[in-house]
Amino acid sequence: MTPIATINPTDIRKGNGTMEHTPSSDPRQVKHIVTAHRQTEGGGFIVRRPIPSQDLELLDPFLLLDELGPVTYDPGKAIGAPDHPHRGFETVTYLLEGEVQHKDSAGHQGVLRPGDIQWMTAGSGVVHSEMPSPELLDKGGPMHGFQIWVNLPARLKMTNPRYQEITRDQIPTATASDGLAQVKVVAGKALGVEAIIDTHTPIVYHDWTIQPGGQVSTDISSDHNVGVYVFSGTLVIGTDGQEVENGQLAVLTEGSTIQFAVSPNESTVARFLVLGGIPHNEPVARYGPFVMNTKEELQQAFADYQGGRMGQIKV
To answer: Is 7 inside any structural domain?
Structure first.
């Protein structure tokens, strides 16, 4: 587990906290680029992680962004995240390839397949597991996906746990007029379509694909912090023409629109996530699977977990 860390998101820091304030501008430009590092998580799988990192501890309200894979497992070799607790935030799992079987201490269970979303509000606390499905474990195969952690404000830290599972076919999609850009709207709005997911606070979560030569502009609320994570190809953001490469997260300036483009000279499509949300501007005390506002609340979370008050997963 990571050491206890207490962060004040209102601190004006560049490099290892929230970003320095920038006056409102329209459209948004790239303010800072963070390159994801690789580390081991769960039962031993490797993730690319731009948040948290030495360059960006959080992008309020986003606490973590992990990209798992792409990786191809041999038969019997697939790994996942065995039983572990959560309190005080939400986990959002988005699968591109593979299958994940999930269970929790509240009796929920199911299988996520390519294109599916699970939006889990841990709230007051759950014990959760995310493991490869029996079929993937038996036969092997590809795995690729994302998990983000969305912080809950102090008033919702102890809300009742909640699950929202959205299948691939239920995620609204839209295509730009030139046919070269497409978006899957997990949360928020884009190109005239709106997500069906219900979020506790305003959140944007888009999965974009832009072909070489494509360009598109999308509206976004000016009060959101916004990050753009590229996981394939090279993307151009803003009127400044800033390029963002595969494995990089761009933190954007303020504004009410974002312009994206891919050079016609590129040979690879650009794939990227857009994450946006209204910052809570509250202290963040985090240790491993718990994210609260004070160290005392963290100590209580550990006591509750160790005392069995978050339950356990029944086989």
So the answer is: no
